[in-house]
Amino acid sequence: MITKIAIAGYRSLRDVRFDLERLTIITGPNGSGKSSLYRALRLLADVAQGLIIQSLAAEGGLGSTLWAGPEAFSRAMKKGGQPVQGTLRKEPISLKLGFASDDYGYAIDLGLPIPNATSLFSHDPHIKAEALWAGQSLSRSNVFAERHGPVVRIRDAKGAWNSITGKLASYDSMVTTCADPRNAVELLALRDRMRGWRFYDHLRTDGDSPSRRAQVGTYTPVLHGDGANLAAAMQTIFEIGSAEDLDNAVADAFDGASVRVRAADGLFELEMMQHGLLRPLKAAELSDGTLRYLLLGAALLSPRPPELMILNEPETSLHPDLLPALARLISKAAEHSQIIIVSHAQALVSALASRKDSKTLTLRKELGETVLDNDYVEWAWPKR
């Protein structure tokens, strides 16, 4: 289970560190930094896909995503007795992301590139440092693998350091480039673990959503990020997952309704049966809220549950009356996966917070910085 998350220098997240539980709910008013925190977690997962540089470029580049305020706030600035202004920097400009789990942790430090007038890629951020360590906190004695600039070192079974490469490109992570089942099995395990994290924030319910149309059906234990393979994912749950849980989740939300998948010429199409109607409703006829709930059901009741699932504002398009059923659905999924929910729906937050293994983190803004009121979380970043 992931136990800690640390983010520094990303948008309004100047320095945010927090502990996680089996079910963690992140909430706060509009503009408090919820979306930035969610995107930072996606960036962290993109490391294992080799996409973090491209993802930062899609957000406008490192310069657009860096914390825009001063390196630190003085006491006078916080009290309003001194204007907010920059001071002499003590640390290099950087964006840092990291997590720790029950067995090991990982962190990455991205910085500004060395100016190069001959390259058109001179605005791409550089990976300055990375570290993979055993246990909850990074120290000099528990590091498995480390990267400083282009140099990557791996500690062998006897504790001796071996240099893997001295020429790692600034845009390549050691997680994707140096993972090796013989010489760097820890990096390989880390990469596969992070690739298994699942994110849902763009489940389409518009009129042109592919989930509203018949689709070619194959076994689908994992719902796509946009929900395109909904019918196949539902049928997979019925055949090799928990059909009872899916039936209960639908009946719970829609007053005894049920869903089924109709197949014709290899195409799967979802249908919903509701009490009082003489025919089933096809997916194309369902409201946005009904379809979104079914998409969330297919994601949360996956017969191949992930180690970590992160949902961004799952309440979007849902009627408030559906939120208690959604909370029960999320709680059921938390029996098999660690879940992070980003939400501003108080009814959903309150319902989920009643679980003993849940934790609610409330974000707020202070002088443009996202602030999290929680106990001190020990954390150390890798040195450049």
How would you explain this protein's 3D organization?
- The protein is α+β, with helices and mostly antiparallel strands and 384 residues long.
- It has 2 domains: 2-197 and 363-372; 205-305, no CATH class.
- It is built from 11 helices and 18 strands.
- The protein has helices at 34-49, 52-58, 62-65, 75-79, 174-177, 185-195, 230-240, 243-253, 288-300, 323-333, 346-353, and strands at 2-10, 13-19, 23-27, 94-101, 104-111, 126-134, 143-148, 151-155, 161-165, 198-200, 215-216, 258-264, 267-273, 281-282, 308-312, 338-342, 358-366, 369-372.
- Strands 2-1-4-5-6-7-8-9 form an 8-stranded antiparallel sheet, covered by helices on one side. The chain has a 6-stranded mixed sheet with strand order 10-15-16-3-17-18, sandwiched between helices.
- Strand 7 (143-148) and strand 8 (151-155) form a beta hairpin.
- Helix 1 crosses helix 6, helix 8 packs antiparallel against helix 9 (288-300) and helix 9 (288-300) runs parallel beside helix 10.
Rg over CA atoms, rounded to whole Å, is 23 Å
Major sheet summary line:
8 strands, antiparallel
Question: Biggest sheet, strands in spatial order?
Answer: 2-1-4-5-6-7-8-9
Overall pLDDT metric: 92
The number of E-state strands comes to 18
Instruction: Estimate the strand proportion.
Output: 25-35%
Which structural class fits the helix and strand makeup? alpha+beta
Please indicate the count of domains: 2
Question: How much helix, percentage-wise, in residues?
Answer: 25-40%
Count of separate DSSP helical elements: 11
Distance between the ends: 28 Å
Give the overall form.
Answer: globular
